[in-house]
């Protein structure tokens, strides 16, 4: 079971997932450019931005998390996104151990971890604002804009934009564009669009290009994701 809601923290979503009550099963977390703070197994864990699908599961569990839109996570966690790329680490590895331990104890005593996670994020964001350039770039990529056009828009060279993107997103703007385009394609495919139409509307050269990108980023064919 998976459910989510829009967070009171702008640019974030609170989610809850319960798995494996009857039979342990694995699930595939697809790259989306986001970073998460997750309450799991009695600890707070930071999930960095993924470049490929992350397979989880195998035992009964219940997790609650807050997911931050691309570019927002570094302001919350206080470290460049690239330091957490493709990683899951305890919050104590990112923040001072005493602070992290205090939040673990607090959330462990709460009836609902979600509002506490939101409080943690809101408190951090009052102290550190997200990178406005990164937010503009992420918004442009979500609309399907090209990297060169976005570099011109924000007044950066290609190299400057790449460095800023790696710090904000964990990888360059081109990779984030691929990840966000995957998300658009999956939304269309799950809505019943024929794959050829999905490729055209999501900005792929053709259906073969779509198939290669899906396999590269997720490890499975599009049919497996739509069917699952």
Helix content: 40-55%
The low-pLDDT segments are none
Distance between the termini: 13 Å
Q: Please tell me what the overall shape is.
A: globular
Beta strand %: 15-25%
Assigned CATH architecture of the largest domain = Sandwich
CATH-derived topology of the largest domain: Jelly Rolls
Question: Which structural class should the secondary elements be placed in?
Answer: alpha+beta
How many helix segments? Answer: 10
Indicate how many domains the architecture comprises: 2
Radius of gyration, CA atoms, in whole angstroms: 18 Å
Query: What is the β-strand count?
Result: 8
For the report, how would you describe the main beta sheet? Answer: 6 strands, antiparallel
Q: Oligomer, anyone?
A: single chain
Strand order of the largest sheet: 1-2-7-4-5-8
| Series of secondary-structure elements, N-terminal to C-terminal | EEEEEEEHEHHHHHHHHH
CATH class of the largest domain: Mainly Beta
On the 0-100 scale, what is the average pLDDT? 94
